[in-house]
Amino acid sequence: MSDTGVDAPLAHPLLKNDYASEWMGIEVLKVDDGHATITMKLRKEMLNGFGIAHGGMIFAFADTAFALSCNPHTGSVDTMTVAAGVDINFLKPGIPGRTLTAVANRRQQSGRSGIYDIQIFQSVPDSEDEVLAEFRGRSRTIPRPS
């Protein structure tokens, strides 16, 4: 707990200099080996000309969950895991003011390659959260540049 008596948001070494995720207001709820859960509020700066979530914002949000689930939260000085490829399917429009949650889970790991599924949910007033998009990421662990 912090000095204010409130639990501080979870941290991950990847977020230290991740100014995009900071600007998006992403908060980490849970992170462990092969899993991450994050949230953010959909703000007006994240909307497209139709007044709904810009697809790039949803993609970037899911990509952050993907990165957090692929890389150890304890950090690594020798390697980093990056996207080798991704697919995203948008299922519903993102509504301004709603809270989005991304839940990332590793499905398979073989050597330096992995497959991760990320579900993106949005809050719905007086109802259960709904699936906004599905993201599948293919990862590759590579040496850190020197």
UniProtKB/TrEMBL annotation:
EC number(s) given by UniProt: 3.1.2.-
Family matches, as InterPro entries: Acyl-CoA_thioesterase_PaaI (IPR052723), HotDog_dom_sf (IPR029069), PaaD (IPR011973), PAAI_dom (IPR003736), Thioestr_dom (IPR006683)
CDD domains according to UniProt: PaaI_thioesterase
First-level EC class: hydrolase
Protein name: Acyl-CoA thioesterase
Keyword Protein biosynthesis: no
Domain Thioesterase: 50-123
Annotated keywords: Hydrolase
Stored Gene3D superfamilies: Hotdog Thioesterase (3.10.129.10)
Signal peptide: none
Statement: the UniProt record of this protein carries the keyword Iron: no
Molecular functions (GO terms): hydrolase activity
Annotated organism of origin: Paeniglutamicibacter psychrophenolicus
